[in-house]
Backbone:
């Protein structure tokens, strides 16, 4: 599986936007970019995923660089409930041999201050 | 639509005993993944199953660990002769199909403590 690099930690203030970066310079043409988050003492939770185009959903936006070697997860207005570990994961897509299994790295610990 | 259910939520076993962890996927999901999270570490893939079939067990230890997903009933992760190093949080996730076009829905986990 292609490797991703994320900062160990980031901090934000409540109600401010948060931009969580992820580098994936060895991404292949069929790799999807997934973001999951894990709140304390809970299972991971899907946030968003994309392939080439930027994506928006009710939770966040995903901005993908034109060369796909990096991406940014954007939380438009951070709340205290957004404090979690955020994982950026590459996955080989339908028809690949990874069968959808997710390879989690260390992620970014997001702290949100009131 | 109930989410992924795992039970028990907490399990305590003594060394040498067996641990059985259950996972009921979301309704309509026939794909189950098991992950393990050791203390202070990230989540690691263990095994991927479809109904009655193990598709990928590349992340599962060769000995003492087994998994099944029968035609009826929950998926079971079984750990025989547990050791202290098996203490971890075990998460299962379900998906309506394999491949990244579908998100994985995770359960709350089973926290196994081996005394």
Residues:
């Amino acid at each position: 599986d292609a490797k991703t690099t994320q900062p160990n930690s980031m901090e934000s203030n409540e109600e401010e936007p948060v931009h969580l970066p992820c580098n994936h310079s060895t991404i292949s043409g069929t790799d999807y970019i997934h973001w999951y988050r894990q709140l304390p003492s809970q299972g991971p939770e899907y946030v968003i995923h994309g392939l080439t185009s930027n994506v928006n959903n009710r939770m966040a936006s995903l901005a993908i660089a034109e060369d796909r070697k990096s991406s940014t997860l954007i939380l438009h207005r951070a709340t205290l409930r957004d404090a979690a570990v955020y994982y950026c994961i590459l996955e080989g897509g339908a028809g690949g041999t990874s069968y959808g299994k997710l390879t989690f790295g260390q992620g970014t610990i997001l702290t949100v201050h009131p | 639509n109930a989410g992924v259910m795992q039970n028990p939520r907490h399990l305590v076993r003594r060394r040498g005993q067996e641990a059985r962890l259950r996972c009921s996927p979301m309704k309509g999901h026939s794909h189950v993944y098991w992950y393990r999270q050791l203390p202070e570490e990230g989540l690691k893939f263990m095994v991927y199953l479809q109904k009655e079939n193990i598709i990928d067990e590349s992340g599962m230890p060769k000995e003492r660990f087994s998994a099944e997903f029968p035609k009826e009933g929950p998926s079971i992760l079984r750990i025989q002769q547990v050791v202290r190093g098996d203490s971890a949080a075990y998460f299962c996730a379900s998906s309506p199909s394999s491949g990244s076009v579908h998100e994985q829905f995770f359960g709350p986990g089973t926290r196994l403590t081996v005394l």
